[in-house]
Amino acid sequence: MIHTVKKIGNPNGVLIPKAILASCGITDEVDVEVLGDFILLRSTKNKPRQGWDEAFKHAIANGDEPEGDIFEEIEPIDVITSKLLDEAENEWIL
User: Can you give the residue ranges of the SpoVT-AbrB domain (predicted)?
Assistant: First the structure.
């Protein structure tokens, strides 16, 4: 889906259809991250792992030990995204 970058006051912007924002749970605020030549927008309200760090620290302080890093073999999101785009000749295949 291609959109035009428009001048909005001094900065530039892209108008995103309301249905797309709603499907991502985005209402009034987004978390913006730059991954190479990608701009990633995320809802600030959807944080499924919020509080995990504190829970792990508390568990370890109480004598629980992690069994290992279950994510150590998973590639970072920018590598996965790059591969998906390469495979689809720059079109999303998800």
Answer: 6-49
> ∠ at Cα 43 (14, 54), nearest 5°?
150
Q: Is residue 71 part of a domain?
A: yes
Do 20 and 63 touch, CB atoms closer than 8 A?
A: no
pLDDT in tens, 9-22: 889 999 999 999 88
Domain, as residue range, for 70: 5-87
Residue 42: its H or E element: strand 38-43
Q: What is the CATH number of the domain that holds 28?
A: 2.10.260
Residues present in the chain in total: 94
Q: Is residue 34 included in any domain, yes or no?
A: yes
